[in-house]
Amino acid sequence: MAIHSSKRTDVNRSAILAQLGANGPASRADLARTLSLSPALITQLVKDLLAEGLVVELEQAPSNGGRPGRMLGLATSAGRAIGIKVVADHVAFVEVGIDGQVVRSASVPFDATSSTFIAELVERIRDFIDAGDGSTLLGLGVGVPGSVDRPGNGVVDSAQLGWAGVELGGALRRAIGLPVIVENNVNALAVAERLFGLGRSHDDFLVVTIGTGIGAGIVVDGSVLRAASGGAGEIGHIPISDDGPRCSCGNHGCLEASIGESALVRRAREESVIGAEDGIGVLLAAAESGDERAAAIYREAGRLLGRTLAGVVHTIDPAFVVVLGEGTAAWPFWSAGFEPAFRSHLLRHRRSLPVEVETWQDESWAQGAAALVLATPFDAAGDAGDQGRLIRARIVGQAVRP
Questions:
Q1: Model-level pTM?
Q2: Exposed/middle/buried for 399, CB within 10 Å: 0-12, 13-18, 19+?
Q3: Which of 202, 220, 238, 305 gives a 20 to 30 Å CA spacing to 36?
Q4: Could you give the domains of the chain?
């Protein structure tokens, strides 16, 4: 199968698959209108997708005059991907169609520090697969909070999980018997944003997550920036003070140690805003009820985030910023500190930079992981390696001919 080198072409091709998957068969003219692409470009893209077995021609579309158009449909309408979000105390799963839409989801307890954590993870994955309807699975995408050497290899280092050099990808491939792509969880969200979100229209943007941790996915020239060891985007470990609280990474004064969920809860307990056993939900409820002390905690977190992100923006020059994560439930309170700090620390010509805050659901992490599988037909950079080739073979192998 020929894989295009143009990243913009890759995104447009994925948009065609997503459109057909979400809305059913369409003509070339329909796709051109819906995706705001020229008819000539649609014709070329569809020609390539037909040649690769990803799209098939169906019956002719009705016409008001002139030559009737052929309807196009997915050749892989039954193909699905599993997305897995791994955190310290639980695993979230989704099963998605090739259009990225969630078919089913689940969340189960998990202990990442257990001596048998890989066996436990394998068991939970098998249980989720067995509970499905037997649809053909293209592969597994796994998002983890940490650095991954390469998505197609899947060797993980994660301070949050207490993992060092864990060969997760190989272990899961051997046990489950499906292709496996492993990536940093925020990078996985950036892939999903690139395929299905605002990132379809831009080659350079920044995805920022707030919640348990603070992270970023950096998209430059259409590709997620991974850098030397796959750890690009760890903005939560930017030092913001010399004597700040100790971070999970072992250093002092990291951004995450000051504005991550545990840091906000710790400060709220210290200031008696919430009880000694209360968590982030109680802090948010206090802010929503008008407690100025609770609002001030979020406001200060927003200020620190905004000031730090201004520096990141000056470094990578994105077209826009997307904010995601569990913490966005409290964004109105973060924003009160974020907006003035962020705008005032930007160079004057950058102060109108768009910042989009997207609605968050916990399954979004796993949906991002599933996008790792869905992106492999257009993996121009080859980061998925042999696993990407196996996924592409499964897609074409199950093509339904009219």
A1: 0.82
A2: middle
A3: 220
A4: 7-74 (1.10.10.10), 80-190+363-397 (3.30.420.40), 203-319+326-357 (3.30.420.40)
